């Protein structure tokens, strides 16, 4: 029996001014799943996440998340529905310490992780708890960005290229964190160009091209897709 969709997106279109960036995206993320949007630079993956979160307001279609009609939710209330967006640029407070960054976000839902739980999951952040955001490595900043969202009690993590620009050993650490979160039942929608990384954490994939979903497949179907993916992604 398959879990019900936590997030269900139908016919999602989005625009930057007059420029039509998303052309009718359909996707679903079931409770407990990790789903990855794959695709080259500039095909609309980030736009899809930002439209789902509601950061991009010029959009049409339907977005249902955990009983909420997200088209009717103003941006300042979006996080309160339990959607947690971790932007590519991470969005942590550079002048605040790790500890301060972790204590700043509002706890909006039951089940938000305590700082003790956060530091168990991210021991390196614990070591750096009194360091300012600016003093952190790229990997530490990415982990802090994820940790902040976990503090809020988000039920769905929207992660935009969490591995971008990070050394392989750090990419591996982030993969381990995502697998741990998955084991605990977290639901994740991930945007990635790092196909090797994505294939270790994802249950399902959508392939995005020119603002459209052009393919979708399960992790078990990966071997059959390799030549198509090599061609499309240049991996
Ligand atoms: P990347 O990983 O590089 O962000 P992507 O697949 O996430 O790639 P998007 O960033 O969503 O792609 O971009 C999709 C399209 O929208 C591209 O053609 C891009 O140039 C355009 N675009 C993105 N941001 C803006 C913006 N702020 N204003 C106008 N056009 C934009």
TrEMBL record:
Molecular functions (GO terms): ATP binding; ATP hydrolysis activity; branched-chain amino acid transmembrane transporter activity
Keywords, sorted A to Z: Amino-acid transport, ATP-binding, Nucleotide-binding, Transport
Entry annotated with the keyword Transport: yes
Pfam family membership, one: ABC_tran
GO biological process, one term: L-amino acid transport
Record InterPro entries: AAA+_ATPase, ABC_transporter-like_ATP-bd, ABC_transporter-like_CS, BCAA_Transport_ATP-bd_LivF, P-loop_NTPase
Classification via PROSITE patterns: ABC_TRANSPORTER_1, ABC_TRANSPORTER_2
Family named by the database record: Belongs to the ABC transporter superfamily.
Protein name (record): ABC transporter ATP-binding protein
């Amino acid at each position: 029996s398959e879990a019900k969709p936590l997030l269900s997106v139908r016919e999602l279109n989005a625009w930057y001014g007059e420029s039509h960036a998303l052309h009718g995206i359909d996707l679903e993320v079931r409770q407990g799943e990790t789903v990855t949007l794959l695709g080259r630079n500039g095909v609309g993956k980030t736009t899809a996440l930002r439209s789902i979160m509601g950061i991009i307001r010029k959009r049409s279609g339907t977005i249902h998340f955990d009983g909420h009609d997200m088209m009717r939710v103003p941006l300042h209330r979006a996080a309160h529905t339990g959607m947690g967006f971790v932007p590519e640029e991470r969005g942590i407070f550079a002048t605040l310490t790790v500890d301060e960054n972790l204590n700043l976000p509002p706890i909006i839902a039951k089940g938000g992780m305590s700082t003790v739980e956060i530091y168990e999951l991210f021991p390196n952040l614990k070591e750096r708890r009194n360091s300012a955001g600016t003093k952190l490595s790229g990997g530490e900043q990415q982990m802090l960005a994820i940790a902040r969202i976990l503090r809020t009690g988000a039920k769905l993590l929207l992660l935009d290229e969490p591995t971008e620009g990070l050394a392989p050993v750090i990419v591996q650490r982030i993969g381990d964190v995502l697998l741990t979160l998955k084991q605990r039942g977290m639901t994740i929608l991930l945007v990635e160009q790092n196909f090797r990384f994505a294939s270790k954490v994802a249950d399902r994939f959508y392939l995005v091209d020119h603002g459209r979903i052009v393919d979708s497949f399960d992790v078990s179907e990966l071997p059959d897709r390799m030549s198509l993916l090599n061609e499309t992604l240049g991996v």
